[in-house]
Amino acid sequence: MTKTEALIQQLQLEAHVEGGFFRRTYESGERPLLDTAYGPRLRLTSILYLLTRTAPIGRWHLNRSDILHFYHLGEPIRYYLIDDCGQLSTHTLGPDPSQGHQLQLVVPGGVWKASHLPHGDYGLISEAVCPGFEFDDMSLGARAQLLHRFPQHAALIEQFTP
Ligand code: GUN
C-alpha cells in the first residue's frame, strides 16, 4: 500500500464528486438552523479534502456559501478562481509563505473554483463552509456553459472539466 492509500484509509476518506477525496468532520449542532434565502442551513460544516497524484484535480464548481480552506500536509495545491465578472485569480495553498504559499484561502460564495495538485503524491487541506454545505448549493461546471460564459479562460476551463 502506498503512503497515499494509507492516508485515505487512516483518515477514512471517500471519493468526492468534484474529484479528490473527502470526509465530513464537523456539522454545527446549533438549532434552529439558519434561515437563508435558499432554505434552512447548518451554521457551519467542515471537511478534510485530499488531492493525489492519481486524482489531482478538483473540477470547476461553484458554491453559494463562503468556503475557508486550510493547508495541512503534503505538496502545495493550486487554486483557480473566476468571479462573477470573469476575473481570474490564482492562489497556492501550501506550507511555505516565503514561496508565496497561503496557509489559508477564502473563496467567497458565488465564485467558480478549480483546484490542482501539480506535482507530488498528495496535498491535504480542510474546508469550512459557512453557512453549512448542501449539495443544492453546489453547481458543477459544465464545460460548454463555462466556455460560453468565460471564453477568455478556455484553456483552464478545458483543463479542469471532464
Ligand atoms: N465541499 C465542501 N464542504 C463539503 C461538505 O460538507 N460535503 C461535501 N460533500 N462536499 C463539500
Automatic annotation (TrEMBL):
<dbReference type="InterPro" id="IPR014710">
    <property type="entry name" value="RmlC-like_jellyroll"/>
</dbReference>
<dbReference type="InterPro" id="IPR009327">
    <property type="entry name" value="Cupin_DUF985"/>
</dbReference>
<feature type="domain" description="DUF985">
    <location>
        <begin position="6"/>
        <end position="140"/>
    </location>
</feature>
<dbReference type="InterPro" id="IPR039935">
    <property type="entry name" value="YML079W-like"/>
</dbReference>
<protein>
    <submittedName>
        <fullName>Cupin domain-containing protein</fullName>
    </submittedName>
</protein>
<dbReference type="Pfam" id="PF06172">
    <property type="entry name" value="Cupin_5"/>
</dbReference>
<dbReference type="InterPro" id="IPR011051">
    <property type="entry name" value="RmlC_Cupin_sf"/>
</dbReference>
